[in-house]
From TrEMBL:
Keywords: Amino-acid transport, Cell membrane, Membrane, Transmembrane, Transmembrane helix, Transport. Signal peptide: none annotated. This is Branched-chain amino acid ABC transporter permease. The lineage of its organism: Bacteria, Pseudomonadati, Pseudomonadota, Alphaproteobacteria, Hyphomicrobiales. InterPro entries: ABC_transp_permease, BCAA_transport_permease. One of its GO terms (molecular function) is transmembrane transporter activity. GO terms for cellular component: plasma membrane. One of its GO terms (biological process) is amino acid transport. The chain crosses the membrane at residues 12-36, 43-64, 70-93, 100-120, 150-170, 199-224, 236-262, 274-291. It is found in: Cell membrane. Belongs to the binding-protein-dependent transport system permease family. LivHM subfamily.
Amino acid sequence: MTEQLLQQILNWITLGSIYALIAVGFSLLFGVLNIIHFSHGDVALMAPFLALALVQTFATAIGAAASPGVMLLAVALAIALTGLLGVLLDLLVIQRFRNAPAMMALVATVALGIVLRELIRHLFPNGSNPHAVPRLVQGSVDLLGVTVPAFNLVAIAVSGLCVSGLFYLLGSTRLGLHIKAVSQDRDAARLLSIAPGRIFRITFFIASAVGAIGGLFFAGYAGIVRFDFSVDVGLIGFSAAVVGGLGSMPGAIIGSLVIAGLDTLVQAVVPNGAAYRLVFVFLLVIGVLVFRPAGLFGRTVVEKV
């Protein structure tokens, strides 16, 4: 019983850490741009497909199976390329809705997500089928008498480092101060010689690259990736940000842990819970929106007219 409980706790923290990498991107982009980038999950789930394509390309080039070093290089390049993809989408589409009504940006990014999924489906070899995703980290560790996959520990550790790095960047660096300045008042930031366009591009790169790490860990956790996985992952990441409070980084993390905890609990307790887990998750989201629309850590904004 104790071993099973520890295993469920590990699954909860692992899943929560992965969701947090997606959710903080939603909150970061909303906090800076005041735009809900609904295709953020689709951008993040491009990373596993880019990594698989790069591994195959490298394997063909060297004429042998890819080594762990080659796979690690492919993962690093996939993260960087996903970050650049986020910047490209901002330049081509999203920046045109900076000052537009929120609904226009929402519809545009929903459509953008569909475009990304269909591109994977039609351009990636056998894009409609699931693709196996090998785990870079193999083996297991004995922890408190429980055999723990090393992948889970690495996912938790890397997620913690990424989130800590984001907090440090935003709170203790010049770039972080510039990001906060632009998010609060773009015109005042311009008077201080801060270029909002540059800050937007940097923010998109950071959010997309961190999301890519979450997408890679999610694919490794599931063992496979499909072109439509981004729908569920994106909705869960967005829901975690909403539960915690859009624009709040700590809220996104807490929201991710809450949703991952409910997800894990339902699968462990409810008969055939895997089929119904999202029902319970989104009922929780509805409940939070009904009783606390600003989220657990969000602040209600009062506008005087």
